[in-house]
Amino acid sequence: FLTHKGYLRKKAEIIAKYINTANNTADVLAMLVTEKDDYFQIVKEKIDPEFKRSTAFELFPSKKEKFLESVKEMMTLKNRSNIPSESDAKHVWENLSKILVPDILKPQEKSLIDHVKTPSREPDTKSSASLKNYFLKLSGAMKDPISPKRTYLTFNPTQRHLLDTFGDSLRHVNKLYNEAFGYEARKVPSHIAHFVDRNVMSRLTDRFEDAFIETSSHKIRSSNDMQFAFSYYYFLMSEMDSIEVEDIFKDFDTDDSGTWSDREIRTVLTRLYDLPLDFSTVAGFEQIITNCSLSNLSPITEFSIPHGERYYGSKLPVVSLSLVKNCPPVSSLLLQHFGNQKKNGFEVVGEEEVAFKMIHNNVSQVLVQIDDLRKHPKKFVCLNDNMKHGTQEAEVIRAVIQDFYESLFPTRSQFELTPEYRNRFLYVSELRKWRWTRDVIRIITYLTLGILILFSVISFLKSETRTGERYPRLRTIQNRRNPQHV
């Protein structure tokens, strides 16, 4: 609790600290609250240089003498406590605010002191809470002007700011789905194998085309991506389908008779109204059906009531599809409750069939994790690779994990490559381009070989033909040279 006297004493002490901070006159101002008379001379010797440098005291020497006299009066008083009394505090405050503050203090601190001594901003001295807040603010102004809260902050504007792009992408998709499908609690899908229906995925990309085009333009993960698993599964669970009255009628017509029996009508009522059903609800619905059958002027296909379709004493007409469609109260009620339903079937299960393990470079820890998976087999297993590769421990852990998977799947899948092969294609387009290039080279090679073989055969045949023709000519030449052999 702070009284008025205490407030004035505290005020004088804080102003003295201002002077101490601004003009390095700590010794001078400390003498204002000392007890010994002989300190006055020291005060005068230390404060005179400050007065000489001040243009205010050079222009008004009387102010200097007046202030020194007031200081001397305070210092000569005996049994002085370290905190001035009420009258002394008032006197010091008036002198400091009128004489010292405007001229001695530094220019950058003058505005702070002017703010303190402005009459329009004087604190409320009637309540202790306001006085406490005032002194806290005033004491804070004497310190570093930076807010104390900033001393606890470790963020440096020049340092790299790490972003949670995965979490941001989830929030981005959640915001889009809130606007499209309404607000609901959406959880992150487990780290499992995702089976994607091409038709559902096609509808998803068509509805959020701009968002997927934006995602495709990013080379790395970004905050405004359409996170694949999250966006796919919650679109699958949120997509609605409009149901016509015909489909609703057929759903409740379990015996495929083309009409609703009394038991089927009761099933409809249990879906439309809260349980337990009272007599007025059943009677009201039957009255609506009866009224529609009497007032309906459109042609209705005649049906005979199948045997066993009516309870004893029932007066309901034949409730056919035509009657339901042409009865606005019933058709609108059915559309209101069953007109929109989930388009895709799904089931949300817990995490009891999912195992997630973070793999580090600790071989013993990895062995414990693998053995836990062996002891408690799950339907889905996710091993998150967080190892530092290139070390001996990483090679051992890799062998342990491979042994674990071979114990689960000893037979290699047809889609897996043998250990000596690696898939060098990241995208299917690259694989198709490579195949096209390979096929072109193969065709060119085959054509070249075919042409070479063809030329070889032709050359061989020509050489054989010329050899047969060469012998008769040679014989003719020999006969001409040796006529006796003819």
From TrEMBL:
The chain crosses the membrane at residues 440-461. InterPro entries: EF-hand-dom_pair, EF_hand_dom, Stealth, Stealth_CR3, Stealth_CR4. Keywords: Membrane, Transferase, Transmembrane, Transmembrane helix. GO terms for biological process: carbohydrate phosphorylation; N-glycan processing to lysosome. Pfam families: Stealth_CR3 (PF17102), Stealth_CR4 (PF17103). Signal peptide: none annotated. It comes from the Eukaryota. GO terms for molecular function: calcium ion binding; UDP-N-acetylglucosamine-lysosomal-enzyme N-acetylglucosaminephosphotransferase activity. Residues 240-275 form the EF-hand domain. GO terms for cellular component: Golgi apparatus. This is EF-hand domain-containing protein. The gene is Gnptab.
